[in-house]
Amino acid sequence: MDQPGPIPRTSETRALRDRLTIPVLAFGGILMAVMQTVVVPLLPDLPRLTGASAGTVSWMVTATLLSGAVLTPVLGRAGDMYGKRRVLTAALVLMTVGSVMCALSSDIVVLIAARALQGAAASVVPLSISILRDELPPERRGSAVALMSSTVGIGAALGLPLAALVVQYADWHTMFWLTSALGALGVTAVWWAVKESPVREPGRFDVPGALGLAAGLVCLLLGVSQGGQWGWGSARVVGLFLGAVVVLALWWWQQLRTERPLVDLRLVSQPRVGLSHVAALLTGFAFYANSLVTAQLVQAPKATGYGLGLSIVQTGLCLLPGGVTMLVFSPLSARISAARGPRITLALGAAVIACGYAVRIADSRDLWMIILGATVVATGTTLAYSALPTLILRAVPAEQTASANGVNVLMRTIGQATSSAAVAAVLVHHTSLVGNAPVPTLHGYLLAFGIAGAVALAAGAAALTIPGDPATGGTRRARGRTPDARDEALEGA
């Protein structure tokens, strides 16, 4: 009897690539979050290092926010049309090129342009989730999507202390050389391990829709992010908000009349999709206040009576347990979604976030209580963020997964930007003099926690109003599509 021959090397290689698909995509998501946070420890020193004003330096954060918000839905749509792996690789290449530019220059104009390029990486998570939907069987998809969603918090928790250590003990350009090397590794790994998805939606790319959305979002987010600095009643900010309303209204009108729109607004108007986007916006608001306020609170001088006077490295270490928690709890989120449905997971996550803020309000003086409260918020964020993509996957056709998840990530971004503006406004109006310098009061921080907790409860309420799964199949059939076997299995989970 003939013995079977050895497994061909190509088969072994393909099997290895299949096993590495999830880790490689997760590495890309973590890398994206690291890239977004590494500049934070540099901000206080960049005016001295670059010769630019503090206001100009702040654009290194604003530019990434704006470009990420604009490019995420655009690149998501491009991925659905031209290939998700191709667009994902291009986004990682832009991110890496931006890091190299930062490593080579100290000119603030070049640095801002480089950070705008890095904003393209915001599309990594929705594109990766779409690849996972196309490539994985239903029994593996839930946990993989949950892990991919959690990479945002994991990377942010890792990026802050890593960047602080590099900045403290080495030249600041070294940090960007390090991230450039990691970016090149990510590009190579994606090109080698990830297969191109065969699921496409052919058609002509909606260039007017992309330009209209870009203009409207820039007006909106620029007004939100700069309102505290320029003045909420200033002509510039009011003009930006009015411009956003006009441009986005015209864009909405154009999208409804385009055969192949950038964003399928008829799909968005369905309660399962639209309410998921509302919940994403509210969850983004509630989540972002945690790291933003915690970082300022623990670094406040001890003379305030509540501050701990921690360094930026110590601050990053305080947030690190939250990142570890997100990694540990992402599989639990998938199991809850499989047993009870993602909307229940989302509502539970929002409730846990609110409980975390209740802990913060109860005690924000002791370090261990601060870390506990921040970690509870991170745990709730894991549950919520892991459930949001699953809701989208169950509600949209496979050929629109990347663009729909891109819009969902966009809503989180808008929520985070609004949270930043709201927290800044609250803290500015609740200050006291410490050493002749205005410093936020403890009451201001507690009020910010209370607002974030209330928004988290609103996110939970929105989650509970999302219709159940039976509408999914009807939605697809109404659109003339039949769910494939994987979608049927997913809906039955």
SSE map:
Blueprint: H1 9-37, H2 46-50, H3 54-57, H4 59-82, H5 84-104, H6 108-118, H7 124-135, H8 138-169, H9 172-193, H10 207-230, H11 235-256, H12 265-268, H13 271-299, H14 312-340, H15 342-362, H16 367-395, H17 401-428, E1 431-434, E2 437-440, H18 442-464, H19 470-478, H20 485-491
Antiparallel strand pairs: 1-2
Structural overview:
Helix 5 (84-104) runs antiparallel to helix 7, helix 7 (124-135) packs antiparallel against helix 8 and helix 10 (207-230) runs parallel beside helix 17. The protein has 493 residues and is mainly alpha-helical. The chain has 20 helices and two strands. A two-stranded antiparallel sheet has the order 1-2. A hairpin with a 2-residue loop joins strand 1 and strand 2 (437-440). Residues 1-7 and 470-493 have low confidence and may be disordered. The longest helix has 32 residues, at 138-169.
